[in-house]
Amino acid sequence: MLGFSTRTVSNVLFWVTRKKWLILAFLLSLSLFYFPSPDGLSYAGHRTLIIVLVTLILIISESIPFPAVAILILIMQVILGIASADEVASSFMSDAVFFIMGSLMLAVAIVSQGLDKRLALIVINLTGNKTWRIASGFLFISAILSSFIGEHTVGAMMLPVALALIRNTGLSAKKTTNLSTLLLFSIAYGCSIGSIGTPSGGGRNVIMIGYLTEFGMGTISYLDWMKYTYPLLLIEIPFASLILWYTFTPTQKIMDSSVRKLKVKVAKNGKLTSDQILAIIILFTTFLGWVFLSPFIGLGIVALSGVFLYLSFGLIDWQQINKNTNWAVILLFGAAISLGIQMKETGAALWVADQTLNYLQIVFKDIVIVRWFTSVVITGLLTNLLSNAATVAVLGPIVLDMGGNPITIGIMTSIASAFSYLTVVASPTCMIIHSTGLINSSDYLKAGWKIFVISIILLLLVSKFYWPMIS
Amino acid sequence: MKILIAISSKEYSGPTLDVGMNIARALNASTTILDVGEKINELSIKDINITNELMDTWNIDRPGVDVLEWAYHYLVKNSFIDNDSEEEVFKNKIVTENASNRTEVYLKGANIEKLSLILRNGDIVTELRDEVKAYEYGLTIIGGSSKRSLAHDFIQYIESSILIVNSFNLDKNYRILLAVDDSPGTANAVKYGVRVAQAFKIKVDLINISKDGHLREGYNNAIKKARKMLRRCSIDTEVLLKIGDPVDNIINTAGDDHIIIMGASTQSPLAKFFVGSKPLGVVEKSTCPVLIVK
Fold it and tell me: What total of structural domains would you count in chain B?
């Protein structure tokens, strides 16, 4: 064929069939490029939205590696003439990206200290041996811990505890289906619920704070954030516990021997080592830094200081951090935030915000409801398709341009992006529990939609009645 | 010769292992059993690595190890490998990542020098293609799938011969249905036919199909050669001459008690992609194992 060998044709065909979304994104962006800009949208804004569309297609389809998507975002910004190379470079790195980098590295450092066995003992001592208490204890502790140190750290540390308990029952996988589903979802949903609690609970909270500062729309301190979100977090816990229990009621109501075996195993580890004590002190210091120093030096710098301490006290070696830090995430969110800033500066965000307001006002009439719908329902749904942090990075500039009080709209959007209950890709912990092979993709919807609806209602109530009292 | 057996779950992989290990034993081939798990989202891949490393410290198996463990016990139970202390073996396993996205499970003390157990995660076609390319397998054995596109992708993109096990029952008396024509792939297909016939100690039906009842010179020669080779290896052979559509004839003759062996299509990849090919048609419609020789 045209002088190409069969193997070459076959290789090309393979590439084309695997990369069809990339090709589609390319063709779509090319045709949109020659499409005249709609009224009210600048050339630069028009081109920025093309990049946003390409990014969304490539992230959802996962047809090329995420670092490649990140690099493409940067290249396209320069080539399409939206910003100069230096402008793109400076918008690529920000305190929010520092924070994402620092918190991923902190997670690696904390997880490798062997504190998970210690944590297991604390959980078990708190909950006793009744299954419902263990499940709600898992959810509660996951939520509280992840509100401070991030969901991926907590998910990684809690999962082995749950799996050890399930294995200790000595029953086959078929007999413990509901039990494992219940315990694993308690961890995953607990982590999601918890991640709204403080700015350091999730990279997306920091991305939102970053946007607010960058756009000059206001600042919010660590403790102020907690005032807004922590009550909601605490109210959500019992609801989620009940829903999970009644959706996946296990046949094993008591896990006596499992718990005993776990205690025996953990007891073998002896007392806290001096390294572990030091690790806890550094973690606590970092937390204090977030609370008291972050208004002056930024959340990202505090997180990096924690990493600095772990490295310089020799509690973790660089090789391990290098191996287990997800550089793809750092690059992708750096690029996504840089794109978000261009959306704001080129007026693309405002244009999309106006269009959304116009169309949704036909349905809802009241602009307050429209804003609420976009920042809560659309964010909540997109989060389940796109993963939570990417949703905030892309939607953030748009919802902030919809008018109203940017601080409350921003917090509301961040909270809704934690409603990642419906799919495997929604959040890192959802993916972690799915990777065990014990949870089917369809299980996510079973309890997920109920918690999703309840969370939206609770957020509505909290924002309507409680937030006006504190702002 | 290296053989790759891809399995996916405990429920459906028994027949694939039965066929695969019988052939591997006959060819004295080193065998790799591969479990391809679901694709892991890139945003979470490191979180899952960290979790897996923690699970190792708790002696909890990584996802996928249980499937390989099941496969190992299945092989022992069906006497494909000998092991006296099978219970002990999995307590002494070592899990190592020997390439990115490729984890090997070593069993200390197990008597399996010619068997590797591998875990991968991702899109099944891409993972199999990468594995075959990197480790140069001669034959890939995989269970059937109801998805048409998947059958096409396996045949088109995996660069080894491929055996698709739609179903297989060890207790049934199978024969081999060897499709012969004048294409260059036929000679290789006959070689495989001999080996498989020897592995299972079964008879061979040579099938030759003419669209209009007229047999070309090349066809006659191919049949003669094949018969000669089979006779030399003292394998019982019957020759069937059919008229009509090749795919339909092969399927009808095969029923559910044959192992079909045929050469890969020599059409261009684009034609295969848009129109399909004889081997693809056979794989889609047949209910018995189909071996496509490349």
Answer: 2
Contact residues on chain A for B63, CB-CB shorter than 8 A: 435-437
Q: Are strands B204-210 and B237-243 parallel, antiparallel or unpaired?
A: parallel
Chain B positions in Cβ-Cβ contact with residue A62 (cut-off 8 Å)? 39, 41-42
- Please check the confidence at residue A32 and state whether its pLDDT lies above 90: yes
Please give the structure tokens belonging to residue B271: 């034609």
Write the CA distances from B142 to A378, B1, B20, B162, integer angstroms: 42, 17, 9, 8
Per-residue confidence (pLDDT) for residue B110, from 0 to 100? 65
Residues B159 and B179 in one domain: no
Chain B residue with the nearest C-alpha to that of A323:
B46
* Nearest CB to A431 within list B40, B60, B159: B40
Q: pLDDT tens, A341-376?
A: 999 999 999 999 999 888 888 888 888 888 888 889
Domain containing residue B202: 175-293
Any domain includes B234? yes
Count CA atoms closer than 13 A to A141's CA, side-chain side.
25
| Among A residues 266-305, those touching chain B with beta carbons less than 8 Å apart | none
Q: How many Å lie between the alpha carbon of B207 and the closest alpha carbon of chain A?
A: 27
Single out the residue in B145, B165, B185 at which a domain terminates: B165
B193 and B145, same structural domain?
no
- Predicted confidence (pLDDT) per residue in A86-112, tens digit: 999 999 999 999 999 999 999 999 999
Q: What is the mean pLDDT of chain A?
A: 92
A-contacting residues of B 149-208, CB under 8 Å? 153, 156-157, 159
- What pLDDT was estimated at residue B111? 61
Q: Give me the residue from A10, A18, A116 closest to B54, CB to CB.
A: A116
The answer to whether the CB of A196 falls within 8 A of the CB of A439 is: no
Q: Does B11 touch chain A (CB under 8 A)?
A: no
CB atoms B156 and A10 under 8 Å: yes
Across the range A37-45, mean pLDDT stands at 91
Q: State mean pLDDT over A12-17.
A: 92
Among A residues 192-251, those touching chain B with beta carbons less than 8 Å apart? none
Contact by Cβ (8 Å): B118, B104: yes
* Interface predicted TM-score (ipTM): 0.89
Q: How far is CA A258 from the centre of its chain?
A: 32
Question: Is residue A1 very low, low, confident or very high in pLDDT (cuts 50, 70, 90)?
Answer: very low
A435: nearest CB among B40, B54, B269 = B40
Q: Decide: residue A109, CB within 10 A, 0-12 exposed, 13-18 middle, 19+ buried.
A: buried
Would you tell me which residues 199-238 of chain B have a C-beta closer than 8 angstroms to some C-beta of chain A?
A: none
Query: B97 in contact with A at a CB cutoff of 8 Å?
Result: no
Q: What is the pLDDT of residue B279?
A: 86
Contact A62 B42 (CB under 8 A): yes
Chain A residue with the nearest C-alpha to that of B265: A6
Q: Are residues B123 and B184 in the same domain?
A: no
Name the nearest CA neighbour of A443 among A55, A182, A246: A182
* Residue B170 falls inside a structural domain: no
The pLDDT value recorded for residue A421 is 94
- Stretch 30-49 of chain B: residues touching chain A, C-beta under 8 Å: 37-49
User: What mean pLDDT, rounded, does chain B reach?
Assistant: 85
Helix axes A95-111, A131-149, angle to 10 degrees: 140
The band of B83, judged by pLDDT with boundaries at 50, 70 and 90, is low
